[in-house]
Structures are given as structure tokens and as C-alpha cells.
Amino acid sequence: MSRIGKLPIEVPQGVEYKVSEHDITVKGPLGTESVHVRPEITLSEENGHIVVSRVDDSRQARSLHGLTRTLIHNAVIGVSKGFEKKLEIQGVGYRANMEGSNLNLVLGYSHPILITPPAGITISVEANTKITVKGTNKQTVGDVAALIRSKREPEVYKGKGVRYEGEYIRRKAGKAGKK
Q1: For residue 25, what is the enclosing H or E element?
Q2: Percent share of the chain, pLDDT over 70
Q3: Is the pTM of this model over 0.90?
Q4: CATH code at 116?
Q5: Which helix (DSSP H) or strand (DSSP E) does residue 174 occupy?
Q6: Is the separation of the CB atoms in 150 and 143 below 8 Å?
Q7: Nearest partner of 133 among 109, 90, 103, judged by Cα
Q8: For residue range 105-163, what is the model confidence (pLDDT) as tens digits?
Q9: What is the tally of structural domains in the chain?
Q10: Under 8 Å between Cβ of 86 and 98
């Protein structure tokens, strides 16, 4: 039995869910998320909790058990609390600002980089060097944060670039000079 899959999903106050044949839709104060449920997995309700179980012990059903439970749990957390990723910009002259809902990055290239967030994602900038990505879908929040980071990944000699908050960048020594 899957250790993650057998855990019941607690539904907080203010969150409603509706189970259809192969989908579960979760609605909360921050929005609505929908998760597709494969036919190898069944959903039931016990004492106000969502219980995920599998139809049989086939390899496919076992592999989907914990995954489906985690996706539904992430949807419940997303519509009740939301997800966020924080990024930091380091480097002389590197900065970010908002132009409407779009993110404008100046990262040492000859042109500014404009990033338009997808639906359901909000981006905010604090102090020109701190970026916060918020949303209800954990995967989309991570994808947008990774897209922003990929525009100028931190380099290993000076540490300049866009990094996740608290990310450690292993530094390398430069070339040793001739003696």
C-alpha cells in the first residue's frame, strides 16, 4: 500500500469539492482547480475527508495511487492558501519592475526581457531585486519561477543572476594568475 496514497485528504473550511466520473473540481476562496482522475483510482468521502484508493494492485494502479492523492491535496492547498515562490536578483545593474501585469527584467543583455504571466498567476516585485510568483496551481507557479530564473541563471564565478530565495550557489575560484 502506498504510504502517501493511503493518507486521507483533509478539506479545510471554505473549500468545496465535487467529484464527477473522472475528475474532481475543488473550489475555494482563491479560485478553482480541477484534477483528472484515472479509471484505476477511485475517490470516496469519509468523515469530511477525501480518501483515494485503487481498484486493483496492478503496477499502473500502484504507481498512480500516491500521485493522484498528491495532486488532489495540492489542489486543495492551492485554492485555500495558495502557493508562492520567491526569487532574488543579484548583480550590478540587474533589476526588475512591473509594467501592468507583465514583468520587465533588466539582466545585462542589450534588451529588456518582458514576461507575461499565464492566467491564474500573479507576479510582484519588491525593492527592484525580489520577485514573488503566486498562484493556486503548484506546477504552474514552479514553471513560471523556473522560466524567470532561466533568463539569467546564477553563474559560478561571481554569483550574478536570478536565483531562488535561499538557494546556495557553489562558487568556483577563477584562473590562477602566472607567478
Answers
A1: strand 23-28
A2: 98
A3: no
A4: 3.90.930.12
A5: none
A6: no
A7: 103
A8: 999 999 999 999 999 899 999 999 999 999 999 999 999 999 999 999 999 998 899 99
A9: 2
A10: no
Q: How many CB atoms lie within 10 A of CB 114?
A: 10
The verdict on residue 16 lying in a domain is yes
- On the 0-12 / 13-18 / 19+ scale of CB atoms within 10 A, 51 is middle
Residues 108 and 94 in one domain: yes
Phi, psi of 22 (to 5 degrees): -130, 25
Could you tell me the residue range of the domain that residue 141 belongs to?
Answer: 83-164
- Quote the cell numbers at residue 61: 494502479
Is residue 1 in a domain? no
Least confident of 2-6, 91-95, 131-135, 164-168: 2-6
Residue 144 burial (10 A CB sphere; 0-12, 13-18, 19+) = buried
Radius of gyration of the chain measured on its C-alpha atoms: 21
Whose grid coordinates read 468521502? 45
Residues 6+ apart with CB under 8 A from 92: 160
